[in-house]
Amino acid sequence: MSVTVRVPAKVNVQLAVGPARPDGFHDLANVFLAVSLYDEVTAAPADTLRITCEGPDAAQVPLDRTNLAARAAELLAARHGIAPDVHLHIAKDIPVAGGMAGGSADGAGALLACDALWGTHTPRADLLDICAELGSDVPFSLVGGAALGTGRGERLTELPVGGTFHWVFAVADGGLSTPAVYGEFDRLSKDAPAPTASPALLEALRTGDATALAGALTNDLQPAALSLRPSLADTLAAGTQAGALAGIVSGSGPTTAFLVKDADAAGTVAAALTASGTCRTARTATSPAAGARVLTP
User: Fold this and answer.
1) CA dihedral sign of residues 260, 266, 268, 272
2) Full-prediction pTM beyond 0.85?
3) 190 is catalytic
């Protein structure tokens, strides 16, 4: 017997970052949208905890206990007083180290898959508590859709979305360290204000207005990401010149996200980005997408 869970990537349509807290984290107003790029995590019985991985850039995925999927299994098993004996196989399709929460998605996927495999029937609130312990983005990977994350991003308020948004994601060569990007943010932003969600952006989501959403996209980490990886400016320029409504660095980067008018425009912008030589590949997707879900055989 095995259980497979499909879990989505995310894009931050607003990432407002406050000053560093005493615990080293930053208070955020983080508006998440789940997008239709997915990893699948399969949990199967095993004599010990082990992880395998396949897919694009699978060689970059750690297969030891530092992987959030492994930590998810350990935390869930500890909560129920059982051994975390499970084989977790990750089929990657979310860019690795790309600012799209691929590792967080795998943690949420493993948590849900193990809960189903072991029959532990963990209440949703307890699963979200474990997700928050795993990392700031993990709760949203479980919930999906659209949500405002506050605190360090782990406290979620689900948001209404009035339509389908079309995206192109330009995948860069190599990753960017999230701690390094936050460190550069701290260097560049000595007096960051308290973060708040943009009313205009929330209204654009509610009404499904892509043009309005494009005008409201913000990411306070973008200057830091561009400082560490100046070539991302060329990618952003290539996407907007190809007809995207707006472009933004996704989370801590280095993936860049382009909001476009419709599916046809997505194809055009993706082709132009690929031809521009400013990114490794370009992927199209839509949002919102459902959170982590068990796939029925």
Assistant:
1) positive
2) yes
3) no
